[in-house]
Structure formats: C-alpha cells, structure tokens
C-alpha cells in the first residue's frame, strides 16, 4: 500500500520534459493503426517514441496554442488541411524526402510529406442502388436522388474535396452544387463511418466518403450491404487526398523526427499502412490492398489538383457557411 | 446566520476556485480580442447561430422533462414506498451514470438499423431514432440519475412530521404534495436540473451521433474545420453567457428557503406507503427504466465484444485502469474538498466572493472541455511551464471543471442540518470552529464523499481534457476507447467501454450509501 502511495506521488510530479533522445509525436491518427508501427520503429532504430493521440483538429489546435513551447517533435495528421494550417510551424524537410514519394502526393514546399494516399469514393447500398450509378457528383442533385444521399460537411476530407472543387471549377460552380445538394435534401452525418452505417441501416442509399472505411465493415461481414465505386474518370468526386507528417520547427529532436519520417516511407511501413489501413502507398513496389482499385487506375481517373493548395480552407468554410452547412 | 465574517479557512479555498475556474473565461476573452470585426459579424451574429441556440433550448428542455419523468417516480418509489429490494433497485437506476455518452447514443441508434437487435432477432431493419428525440433520449438516459440522486436525498432527509401534520389538518394528499412536499424537494430538483442542463449545453458527443445540430456544433466546427480559436472563443463566450442566465434563473427559483427541522427530539422514521396492487405497475416501470438505460447499452457493448475480444490486450487494460484511478481519485478528493468551503460560504455568508466562486465553478463545468483544456495549456505555459503536461495540472484542471458536480449533495446536507444545533453549541460556549467541527462536520462526511464519487465517475468516462493535458504516453481507459472509435473500430473499443462501466459500478454503491444518510 505504502509503495503504491509513493509511486502515486512520484507519478504526480511526472512531466513530459522528455529525455533528449525521446521522440514526441502528436498523432491525429488512432492508436489501433499506429501503435504497431511505433513499436516497430523503436525496435529498428533504438529511439524511444512517445505518442499523444487525439483527433487531428484537437492536436492541430493544441500545437497552435503551444507555439514555440511545444514539446512535440512531429505532427502526424489525418488530412492535408491540418498540415497546411500548421505549415508555418513546420521545419523544412530535405528535398530528398518528398522525392521518395509518388508525384501525385508530393508537397513541393517541403513542409510536410504524405505518408499514405486515399481517394474520395461513392459508397452505395447494394440493395437499393446497385445499378445505374451516378457518373458525376453533379448527378447527385437530380430529383432521382432526393433525400437518398449522405454527406459530412464537418469532415476534413469532405472540406478538402470542396476546396478542390472550387479550385478546378470556381467558387460559383461549387456554391451552386452545394445549394442544389441542400435543396435535394442531402442528409448530414457526423463522419465517414456513420454514413456507411446509415446506408446499411436503410436511412440513405449513397454516401460521399474516403476509400478506406468500407473495408472495416466488409472484413468482418462479407454480406455487408454496402459497396463503393468511383465516378467517371476525371470527376472531382474521385479526388486523391493524403495523410501526412511534418517536423515541428521548435523541436530539439529533428534528427529523430526525420528518422521517423524515413521509417514511415520505408517499404515495410508502407506495406503495413496499405494492408492494415486499406490505404494507398505513397511509393511504388508495395503490394496493394486487395479490396481497392489499383493506384494506377486511381491516378488516371482522379482530377489533377495540387494537394498543396488544399490547405486554403477559408474560402471553403465561408462557402459551407453560406450554404447553411456549418 | 451564525458567523458574521467568513473565516479565512473558507475564503482561501474559495479564492482558489475562483482563480482556477475563471481561467477559461479569461483565455476566451484574450482569444476573442484577436477577432477581425467584419468576419466576427459574419461568423458570430449570423442567423444560423440563432437556430442552433433554439435547438439547444429545445434539447435541454426535452432532456430535463424526460429525465424528471423518469427520476421523480423512481425517487418516490425507492424512498417512500414499501417496495422490496429498494437498495438494489436504487443501485441499478444510478448505474447508467457510468455509461459513456457515445455508448448510449450508439445503443439507441443500434436498437434498429442494420446491426440492430430488431434485425438480428426479427429480421426487421428500421431507420434508427435520430434528431431531437434521439439526442434527448440518449442524454436523459444517462443523466437522469443526477436528478434521481438529488430527489432521493431530499426525500430521505425530509422531516415526515410536516406532511403528517398537514394530513392531520385535513389536507388532501395532492394538497400536501403541492404545498408541503414539493416546496421541500424543489431546491434538490432545481440543482439536479442545473447539473444536467449545463452538461447538455456543453455536450458534443451524443448530439453529433444523433445528428441534432446544437450550439456546441458551431464551436466544434470552428476548431475542427477552420482550426480557428478566435471565433470558437466568441461562440464559447456566448455559451457561457447562456450558462450565467441559467444560473440566474436557478437563484431566482430557489431563493431564501429553510429546510432544517426546527422541532425538538429525533425525527420520526417515515412509515412507507403501501403500494398494494400497484406494486406490479411500479415493478414494471422500474424494469423498463433499467432495461432501457442499462440493458440497452450493455447489450450493444456485448454485441460488439464478439468481434473485439480477440484484440483485447489485458496488460494495456490494466495499465489504463491504473492510469484512470491515478487521475480520478485525486480529482475527486480535491473537488469534494474545495466544494465544501464554497458551498458553506454561499449558504452561510452570502458575500460577493461566495456568489462568485459558486457561479464560476458552474461556468467551469459548462465550458466545453476542449476550450477548458486549451486555456490550461495557455496559462500553464505562461506561468508554470514546469507543470505543463504533468499529472498535477491534469488533476487540477479536471477538479476545476467538475467541481460543481459535488455541490448538490453537500448543499442539501447543509440545508437539512441547519444551524440551530450549532447555535445551541455556541450559546453553550463552544467556539465557532469547535461547534462546526463537533456538530456539522461529522454529518458532512458522507455527503462530501458522495459528491467526490460523482466527480470520480465523470472523470472516469469523460476524456477531451486528458488528450490535451496528460503527460505524453499516459493512458486512461476513456483514452483507449477513443483511440479506437476515432478510426471507426467500435468492436475494438467495446472491451474498454465495458471496463469503464464495470470500474465505475464499483463506486456507485458508495454514493447511495453516503447520500441521504444511508437510510433507504
């Protein structure tokens, strides 16, 4: 009992002014996926890594509040929007780092690097929407789809998609589409997973999500009544997005942080993320996830949008607010 | 009033509470000042916010109505009737406190739909309950025990002589209830409403799953979409203004009432009301409540466990349980220890400091947790960087945030104890401290402990602050739940969520034992 009390007191004073060679990672990605990678990294490099998990937006806001006093060495985010918002607080990466990754995923400013790719997809009910699928996101505002489509306006990936829409087709076109979708009684959901469950539940028939969520349901249940597909080639609804990481400028452990980034881009880690997370690798030579379309197909059918410009969220948020969605 | 001037031993803790709980508001004002006036008008004063506010009001009102409709009959039955196994039943109806909000929301959603029991057992797949009713049901199903506990303690502490006298003077049962019982339990009811209402205002988890857009939605959007602390600060300040208005209402509703026994001799034990044939109806009602509020979430968790059990890491679970205990126990002790002087001050020395510390504690409780945590980040980095991301800071922040939960039991106990016996002791020559220490303090032990456990249970299941403020690498059970749900892995999260409920259930019995002086 006494020792418990004593160790309790010792713990109370425990702070994270970590030892110099401990790498501190703020992760917007969940532990279930990331934990094994961290262990592997520690075993391979001998560097101790500590991870603070949270949602991407919480961790990004925390980094902003901490400023120069941040104990974080590296930020690993779920979307390019958060990385863009934090660009000023990131150290420059060596140019070679971004050269490791495929061209579609590169960040030419070298502030962060993509660690995995994903695409926007259309998920649909296999029971109520199996044939005659929409070819473009603009089809979804047809009367035929009234009240049958789900979306998640607060979701970072959805917002990145709207930003890309604005950049390729102009603000007016994007606004017109949003208004038409709202007028068509499109249903608001919290995130990607709840849209997929909503389709299985019979609440809606279509949803606009990222590619890697459906696999989590179908892996456990082969008869899960939801499938996913892309729109016609070049449609903005097929947009390619990234998760990525950047090194915090205020860090004292930049070398260790760089070692972690190199590790994430290594074939072994890329293979793990690809198979375990149902995502796309950012380099060649990786066995693709069986349930996904090939990366080649995806890069062919996805619209050409510079992922760096997706950090410009202000206009998108204004647009979403004007449409009454935020 | 016994003491003319507030003793320093009460003033110091109250000052600490003021200082700790006003930090978020201060930080919000600081951040709010960065705003660009044009955009400010755009974001803060747009029509949609009015809609969100109206939705918030609706949700609070409906949640309180459902919660009271459940809690009131239960409290009466389990204190006043001759129902059997009242102790066990009380335990079962308080247990939903331990259910995390997202689990309750999922349970209701999961009742129907693809994964639902209805489809599983009967092959019917119906669209789930969403929107205002879904959100209000989910919230009231795990917050109604706050109202129940308050009412139960009020019923148990009431002097039966008042009702009996009224009856003997020829008043009808209804008239006695209306003019004697209700005024006596009114403050308990209102303080239960405040705790639940403020919780509902700040909650985001359950309402987001239920797809009902309330004001916290607007704040969340600022952080998550825009990474914008400035406008989030404005919106949070609006939320706090709403809280102040609610507290003003509470004060107006419960002003100046005395509830202590004034008669001599010991209070008589109340004779329980015979239910007779009504016992079946009462039993069925209680069974329905337990089924909905406890059976439903547990079934959903067990349902998920079928997939998640294989992935369970027992060592990680043990580490998380230890982490939870290391944080929650000191938070509970600190919060209860600070709540006592604040309540004492406010009841006995109606000073500006007393009013302020109490109100600020409620403000802290209503502040969205992310906002509260970021304020702590800012001030600790400015003032005590050494403590940044230490357990000490996390414990302090939690205690400040949940302090108000401990007020209810302590306030009620003090009101029921009254001041007459203490005055008698003083008139016999005892010093104020000695009179208080010998007469009041022994009777406060249990309510203070009950208040502490309410805080404890909240800390065990809630999490946003732990993300931001705990030492990097530190783990609690609720963090483990979220680390999985954030990637959509509900099955893997289920064992941890179940562990949270089991862990808290160990302590819930103690609340019942300690509140209402253990008579039941």
From TrEMBL, chain A:
UniProt record similarity statement: Belongs to the bacterial solute-binding protein 1 family.
Organism, scientific name: Paracoccus laeviglucosivorans
InterPro entries per the UniProt record, alphabetical: Ferric-bd
TM helices/strands, residue ranges: none
Keywords per UniProt: Iron, Metal-binding, Signal
Protein name: Iron(III) transport system substrate-binding protein
Coiled coil: none
Binding site for Fe cation: 212-213
Annotated Gene Ontology cellular component terms: outer membrane-bounded periplasmic space
Pfam families, alphabetized: SBP_bac_6
Record-level Gene Ontology MF annotations: metal ion binding
Source superkingdom: Bacteria
Automatic annotation (TrEMBL), chain B:
Keywords annotated in UniProt: Cell inner membrane, Cell membrane, Membrane, Transmembrane, Transmembrane helix, Transport
Family per record: Belongs to the binding-protein-dependent transport system permease family.
Species whose genome carries this gene: Paracoccus laeviglucosivorans
GO BP: transmembrane transport
InterPro entries cross-referenced by the UniProt entry: MetI-like, MetI-like_sf
Protein name, as recorded: Iron(III) transport system permease protein
Ranges annotated as spanning the membrane: 7-30, 50-76, 88-109, 129-149, 188-211, 231-249, 278-305, 325-347, 359-381, 387-410, 448-469, 493-512
Residue ranges constituting the ABC transmembrane type-1 domain according to the UniProt record: 53-248, 321-513
Keyword Metal-binding found: no
Domain of life per record: Bacteria
Subcellular localization(s) per the UniProt record: Cell inner membrane; Cell membrane
Main localization, broad class: membrane
Cellular component GO terms held in the UniProt record: plasma membrane
